[in-house]
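Hi both,

Apologies for the delay on this - the queue was longer than expected. I finally got the zinc ion-bound model through. Below you'll find the protein sequence and the ligand SMILES exactly as submitted, and right after that the structure tokens for the full complex including the ligand.
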Amino acid sequence: MSNMRTSIKCNCGQRIIAKDVMQHGYYLRLFGPSFVYVKFRCSRCKKLGEQFIKQEEWEDGILKDKTIELSHDEKEQFSTQGAISINEVIDFHFELEQMSDLKSLEPLVPAKKQKSRSTPHS
Ligand SMILES: [Zn+2]
């Protein structure tokens, strides 16, 4: 198992992104791994190329121009939160003004980060 990010590259080394892709399909097999098929024209050398990628190695970001430095979990978390509204920004501002010391932030820390108190376990 490698954690290397999969990307599609032309023989010349140019990375292939969504706009270079001419054809894109699935190559399904009854047995063994299925493949994603991509036919592309390289934006640098203009040569045609094609590549099969194992379906389990295929990821949504594979043809994206930028690599996002977020883990999968973080991406999921942020995508469910929506955009930060102006009200949230204002609330945050007031919270900061009211903050007397860092202790007052403790109740806001997610439960999993809370240290176990010194109360003995029964
Ligand atoms: Zn090329």
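Main takeaway for now: The CA atoms of residues 111 and 119 lie 17 Å apart.

I'll put the files on the shared drive as well.

H.
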